[in-house]
C-alpha cells in the first residue's frame, strides 16, 4: 500500500516562511489529484490547497496569495511553500489525495506561528 510522509514543519515567527514536503512511496504523486490539509486546535480539518494531475491548482481563500502547492515528479514529492505566515496558520498539516482517502492519512507535520 502507498504511503505519504509529511515533514518540514516547525516554529516560525509571523511573517516568516516554511516549506513542507510530502514524500510518497508506493504510489506516484504525478498520477493523482493531491492536496494539503490542515487541522487547527479545536477546528475541523480543512483543505488548504490542491493540485491536479494536469497541474491546475486551487487554494483556500485564507491562504490564497501566500501559499503555493507544487510537486517534483522525479522525487515523487509534493510541496507546500508557505510565506507571510500568520498565527492562524498554526495547525497540523497533512497531505493526501483529493478527495481525501482514508488510507493515506499520516502523522502530519506541526506548524506553529508565534512570536
Structure report:
Helices cover 0% and strands 48% of the residues. The model has no long low-confidence stretch (mean pLDDT 97). The N and C termini lie far apart (40 Å). The protein has strands at 3-7, 10-12, 18-25, 34-39, 46-51, 57-59, 67-72, 77-82, 91-97, 109-113. It is globular. The chain contains no helices and 10 strands. A hairpin with a 5-residue loop joins strand 5 and strand 6 (57-59). The protein has a 6-stranded mixed sheet, with no helix packed on it. Strands 1-3-8-7 form a 4-stranded antiparallel sheet, with no helix packed on it. The protein is mainly β.
Brief summary of the model shown:
With 115 residues, the chain is mainly β.
Shape: globular
Largest sheet strand order: 2-10-9-4-5-6
Find the structural class using helix and strand composition.
Answer: mainly beta
Count of alpha and pi helical runs: 0
For the largest beta-sheet, the strand count, sense and barrel status come to: 6 strands, mixed
- What is the N-to-C succession of helices and strands? EEEEEEEEEE
Low-confidence stretches: none
What percent of residues adopt helix (DSSP H or I)? under 10%
Task: Determine the strand fraction and express it as a percent band.
Answer: over 45%
- In round numbers, the mean pLDDT is 97
What Rg is obtained from the alpha carbons, in whole angstroms? 13 Å
Query: How many β-strands, per DSSP?
Result: 10
User: How many angstroms does the end-to-end distance come to?
Assistant: 40 Å
Amino acid at each position: 500500500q502507498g504511503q505519504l510522509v509529511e515533514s518540514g514543519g516547525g516554529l516560525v515567527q509571523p511573517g516568516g516562511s516554511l516549506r513542507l514536503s510530502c514524500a510518497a512511496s508506493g504510489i506516484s504523486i504525478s498520477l493523482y489529484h493531491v492536496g494539503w490539509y490542515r487541522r487547527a486546535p479545536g477546528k475541523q480539518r480543512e483543505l488548504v490547497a490542491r493540485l491536479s494531475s494536469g497541474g491546475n491548482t486551487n487554494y483556500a481563500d485564507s491562504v490564497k496569495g501566500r501559499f503555493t502547492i507544487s510537486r517534483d515528479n522525479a522525487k515523487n514529492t509534493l510541496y507546500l511553500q508557505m510565506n507571510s505566515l500568520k498565527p492562524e496558520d498554526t495547525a497540523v498539516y497533512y497531505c493526501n489525495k483529493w478527495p481525501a482517502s482514508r488510507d493515506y492519512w499520516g502523522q502530519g507535520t506541526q506548524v506553529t506561528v508565534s512570536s
